[in-house]
Amino acid sequence: MGIGKSKIDPCPLSPSWGKSQSMDTSQIHHGSCSKKAEEISLHDQAKHNNTTEEPAGEPEGQEGMEEMPEQEAEEEVFLKFVILHAEEDINEALRVQDLLQNDFGIKPGIIFAEMPCGRQHLQNLDDAVNGSAWTILLLTENFLRDTWCKFQFYTSLMNSVNRQHKYNSVIPMRPRNNPLPRERTPFALRTINALEEGSRGFPTQVERIFQESVYKTQQTIWRKTRNMV
């Protein structure tokens, strides 16, 4: 992606030191050998070379490996959805992400906190919104307290208006836990039918909104845009 994924940092891989340590130990051991032992070792080595000498060449399997590119570029993925949320609602956003992916099979998806760190928030927001088919606004009591969240939903709405293929791609959602009351919801969001997790019609809403045909259309446009860059 598009998103990759911010408040959650991936743990860096720790280097392996075991191999270099064993090599040092081996060198120390050889340095302590007696002269006689060295002569015996050299004699055995010469004998071994005479009996097991192989034609010069690269080890088996190396030739095929060299023909492969040094580093195969990982194909970017166009996501099904991104969840924009308040900083205090990371756990709730993760729960909703798991609900949509595992219970309804809408995958892959990401929450905004999983976007790569070390980049500007605006760049992450652009990648998240335009690198996914649907933008879910997690409407909780915390959402409107965060100025950054207000900017996110206004920007997302303007993006859906200005880009024809992103029309109806912004989905307000009131989760089961700590939902924002309807009367306190900004007018711009009240004009959009929100996902109501607490309602009995929630599964039907999800099925009606997240249609595979809509995803495929947006994915095709996204790929064309990426190839033009």
Low-pLDDT parts are 1-43, 51-55, 61-73
The percentage helix is 40-55%
The residue-averaged pLDDT reads: 75
Beta-strand content: 5-15%
Q: What would you report as the Rg, rounded to the nearest angstrom?
A: 28 Å
Count the beta strands: 5
**Count, helices:** 9
Q: Sheet with the most strands? A: 5 strands, parallel
Strand order within the widest beta sheet: 2-1-3-4-5
User: Which term fits the overall shape?
Assistant: globular
Derived structural class: alpha/beta
Output the helix-strand order.
HHHEHEHEHEHEHH
Cα(first) to Cα(last) distance is: 14 Å
Q: What would you note in describing this structure?
A:
The chain has 229 residues and is α/β, with parallel strands linked by helices. 47% of the residues lie in helices and 10% in strands. The protein has 9 helices and 5 strands. The protein has helices spanning 18-31, 35-52, 62-67, 90-103, 121-130, 147-162, 187-190, 202-209, 212-228, and strands spanning 79-84, 109-111, 132-138, 170-174, 195-196. A 5-stranded parallel β-sheet has the order 2-1-3-4-5, with helices on both faces. The two termini are 14 Å apart.
Summarize the structure.
Helices cover 47% and strands 10% of the residues. With 229 residues, it is an alpha/beta fold.
Task: Name its key features.
disordered N terminus; 5 strands; alpha/beta; 9 helices; 47% helix; globular; single chain; five-stranded parallel β-sheet; 10% strand
